[in-house]
Amino acid sequence: MKAILHVDKEWGIGKSNALMFRIPEDMKFFKQTTVGNVVVLGANTLKSFPNGKPLKDRVNIVFYPQGEKRDDCTVVGSLEELFCEIKKYDTDNVFVIGGAMTYKTLLPYCDEVLVTKVDAVGGADTFFENLDINSDFKLIYESPYIETNGYKIKFTTYKNTAVKAY
What we know:
Elements: E1 2-7, E2 12-14, H1 24-34, E3 38-42, H2 43-48, E4 59-63, E5 74-76, H3 79-86, E6 94-98, H4 100-106, E7 112-118, E8 126-127, E9 137-142, E10 146-148, E11 151-160
Parallel strand pairs: 1-6, 1-7, 3-4, 3-6, 4-5
Antiparallel strand pairs: 2-8, 7-11, 9-11, 10-11
């Protein structure tokens, strides 16, 4: 299982239950990486999508304790149920896509984290763990910065050296 996200200079990931940045290159990378695969998300992330609809062309698994079942995605109410559902798929094709509590809960189980770093401060009210200072994570890939849509971004990959089994 992997996590995928973008962060600002302060490892901020969101503001008012929305993305801080709409950067076409980052959105393109996210879509290319996740289409045809499985995405794991929390209820607030699902609600933040247009009309509260799951992402197209992906299996959407929503971690939503006490959540109602839906026909357009799989809703799971516990970690045990989530892990049972994830085991039905190749874990290389499972991507945690937010929000903050889902990232925090599942980060120890992710073998890789794909982070688009935005060279800006987005005024976040929600943050991701700074992997640069977490001894369990090692930076294994870093692209050069590119300028796009008024922002400088770079794509990075972190490897979890202490993945928890599920």
